[in-house]
Specification:
- The chain is of the alpha/beta class and 261 residues long.
- 37% of the residues lie in helices and 16% in strands.
- It is globular.
- Helix 10 links the parallel strand 7 and strand 8.
- The protein has an eight-stranded mixed beta sheet, sandwiched between helices.
- It contains twelve helices and eight strands.
- The N terminus is likely disordered.
- It has one domain: Alpha/Beta hydrolase fold, catalytic domain (Rossmann fold, 3-Layer(aba) Sandwich).
């Protein structure tokens, strides 16, 4: 494979909604892996586990300056932040396994073998799709209005990217939807007792709560899993302190990386 060049398309729909105008904070290190850009912001004083948060979507405009509040607090707690830019992927087996290249590289560099996944919007789908295939390799999943359901925003508003990523015609993809859909594949996460924290708005019309986080919550609780959803009244799919200065999310990550379940 070509590990020297990277060219990742940027869909406009959610880039506008997700602080596309912000410049990403300067990372401590960037590198190329399998032809794609990766970044690591290393904690100045790492905790004993060399914990890290795996953020998605990593794109030319994301993470952005709007994430600084989270990053400052996580770094201060000894938790590094990292991400891998595969472009506008939608959780297919093939793109999920490319994320594994990045996971393996982070572990090779001495970071924890069980990161906390942080998926924002369609990054939630990226991280959940990888997590459901590798539930023994994660400490926890966190989400900021995450896409959890392929039948929601992906098929309704991003069908071309979905079918391109999965390499399937629409009828075949829909016929096998339950095979690929994170909301239908929670068994591994439940078996490995992976805790979940999600912050979502009850007025989100882009990634509707009822079609995404609410389904995860209902099914995870029914399976005996640990999940907390902070539902923000009157808030939609936007950059606001409700989502980007959520102290409960920070507290959750710090507690889980410290060994608490």
């Amino acid at each position: 494979m070509n590990r020297r060049s990277a060219s990742c398309p940027l869909a406009l729909l959610l880039a506008v909604a997700l602080c596309a105008a912000d410049e990403p904070p300067p990372p401590k290190e960037t590198f190329e892996l399998d032809g794609h850009r990766a970044f690591v912001i290393a904690a100045p004083k790492p905790d004993t586990n060399r914990s890290w948060v795996w953020y998605a979507p990593t794109l030319p405009s994301l993470p952005g300056a709007g994430h600084q509040w989270y990053f400052e607090r996580l770094l201060k707690a000894g938790i590094s932040i990292a991400g891998f830019d595969l472009g506008e992927v939608r959780g297919s087996p093939a793109s999920s396994e490319k994320f594994t290249f990045f996971y393996d590289e982070m572990v090779r560099r001495g970071y924890s073998s069980k990161p906390v996944l942080l998926g924002q919007s369609r990054g939630g789908l990226m991280m959940l799709a990888w997590g459901m295939r590798h539930p023994d390799k994660i400490t926890a999943f966190t989400g900021i209005y995450p896409v959890c359901n392929l039948a929601s925003w992906p098929l309704k508003n991003s069908k071309k990217s979905v079918l391109t990523d999965y390499g399937l015609p629409e009828d075949e993809f829909v016929e096998n939807l339950a095979r690929y859909n994170p909301v239908d594949n929670l068994q591994g996460l439940l078996k490995n007792r992976v805790p979940i924290f999600i912050v979502h708005g009850d007025s989100d019309t882009v990634v509707p709560y009822a079609d995404n986080a609410q389904i995860i919550k209902q099914r995870y609780e029914a399976g005996g899993g640990s999940i907390t959803v902070k539902l923000i009244p009157g808030e939609g799919h936007k950059v606001s302190p409700s989502f980007f200065e959520c102290q409960e999310l920070v507290d959750f990550v710090i507690a889980k990386t410290s060994g608490g379940k």
